């Protein structure tokens, strides 16, 4: 599943069979829920074919509260598969001067069992 970035929605590239999981860019559209529903369904259908390590790279320059909730739901879903033995890691990127996105990542890291790393990105 691949979706191009728009002004209000992130670039999405999820190909579980090839261990690719990227969500990058802004996530604040009024109908952002519509983006995350098929994404979640795709993960649920394809995660069983995961071989190797799935490194989930998440990098948001804008993330509204609804998007944050949806990302949390995706991480809970991935956490369940991690607990069932799938090899999953999360890499959370944030602009080095964006404390809000950093704090969101730190909060999410505390709520799941998946190995979770946070990286600042310098401009």
What is the general shape?
globular
Structural class: alpha/beta
**Whole-number tally of structural domains:** 1
Radius of gyration: 13 Å
Taking strands numbered 1, 2, ... along the chain, how are they ordered across the largest sheet? 1-2-3-4-5-6
Following the backbone from N to C, one meets helices and strands in this order, namely EEEHEHEHE
H/I helix tally: 3
Produce a short descriptive summary.
The chain has 123 residues and is an alpha/beta fold. It has helices spanning 32-46, 65-83, 99-111, and strands at 2-3, 11-15, 20-27, 53-63, 87-95, 116-121.
Structure description:
The chain has three helices and six strands. With 123 residues, the chain is an alpha/beta fold. It has one domain. It has a six-stranded mixed sheet, with helices on one face. Strand 5, helix 3 and strand 6 form a beta-alpha-beta unit. It is globular and about 35 Å long. 25% of the residues are buried.
């Amino acid at each position: 599943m691949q979706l191009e970035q728009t002004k209000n929605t992130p670039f999405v590239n999820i190909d579980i069979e090839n261990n690719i999981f990227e969500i990058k860019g802004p996530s604040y559209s009024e109908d952002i829920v519509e983006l995350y529903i098929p994404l979640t369904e795709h993960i649920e259908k394809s995660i069983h074919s995961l071989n190797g390590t799935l490194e989930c790279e998440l990098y948001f320059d804008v993330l509204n509260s609804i998007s944050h909730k949806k990302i949390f739901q995706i991480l809970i879903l991935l956490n369940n598969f991690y607990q069932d033995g799938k090899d999953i890691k999360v890499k959370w990127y944030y602009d080095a001067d964006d404390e809000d996105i950093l704090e969101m990542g730190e909060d999410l890291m505390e709520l799941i069992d998946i190995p979770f790393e946070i990286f600042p990105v310098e401009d």
